[in-house]
Amino acid sequence: MTTSRSITVGRDARRSVPHRPVRIGEGRMSAIPMRTTDLPTSAFGADCQTRLALDVLSGTWTGVVLWTLRDGPLRPGELQARIGGIRHKVLTGTLRRLEQNGLVTRRRYAEAPPRVEYELTGPGRGLLEALSALGRWTERHADEVLAAQERGR
Length: 153
Known about the structure:
Strand content: 5-15%
CATH topology of the domain at 49-152: Arc Repressor Mutant, subunit A
Number of helices: 5
Shape: globular
């Protein structure tokens, strides 16, 4: 059983953010596992396109927002409530970056009051497999990483 703990991440390093355990990656990945020997030696060079996914996912809340949108479109208030611990301004910035990268679409409805929904695009949905793998890695190694961070303080 996973317990709740406070962790400190990214820009929120000045304050402790309550962390609610989320189960990511239930099910199996359909892709064939890649061995590191399958990658060219320049796979992560400065001009390599492989780095694109790392750059896109580098935001503190990016993966969380993508994962939360996996079941369909949501309004910003619904996203914020489901995620918990994210400020409105940070969520708005994350959604704008995801939209600029073509990972989510923003749908505005012409009604009063105005309504906006965000939904994953094909490329955004394609990142769910990678997030699932990261979730499994976290389940296996989170305690070790957190312990190493504590030793380094």
